[in-house]
Amino acid sequence: MRIVAKTDKGKVRESNQDAYAVGEFPDEVAWAVVCDGMGGVAGGNIASSLAVKVISDKINASYRENMRPASIKNMLDSAVVAANIEVYDMAYSKAELQGMGTTVVCVVVKDDCAYIAHAGDSRVYVYDGEKLTQVTTDHSVVQNLIDQGKITKEEAEHHPNKNLITRALGVEKNIDIDFDEVYLADNETLIICTDGLSNYVSDDEMINEVSDGRYYAFADRLVKRANDNGGGDNVTVVAIAK
Fold this sequence. Notes:
globular; alpha+beta
């Protein structure tokens, strides 16, 4: 398992409200968590950093060799729920932090499967050497409009409410988490990112940046492409290559 990651504040924002952590366990298991904070400069930074710390600490404390799929899912669920409580409690303990929250994607890759928990519009893709497939479904206003048939995917790219999300960690006492399990074959790559990448880099451009298979350059290249295309948001990319 090979992991590369990079985060950058982009060309417009004054600070980076994204946060991430990655790691590996001895039995060829990789994990990652990516968060994109919201709620003002201070609030966004605090929410994403706290969520990443709580989730990564929980994963490192709870993971055991030979964990079954159901146990991995329970571990991710417990980690995200714990992070939600921590962020929510901190937000309501200080007036200046009220309303802060963060998107979350956390992934464990074990054997031939990626186990994914997420809330918000940060994404997971799989690149198989030819095509790029989005695994997660955004929790956003425009995604709801797409699902209802009111706008097309192409129209969503320029919609005025493009950045409004419908689900986030830390905003309410309870969090609704989506889970996905996806098969990951040898030579396939899992790409985890915030919307600073997906909003500024098209699928075709992403494919162009990773098509040569040089996984160690994937994160750097994708972040650079987002910045070359305007860099209007913080951008974080984690790539896990099998």
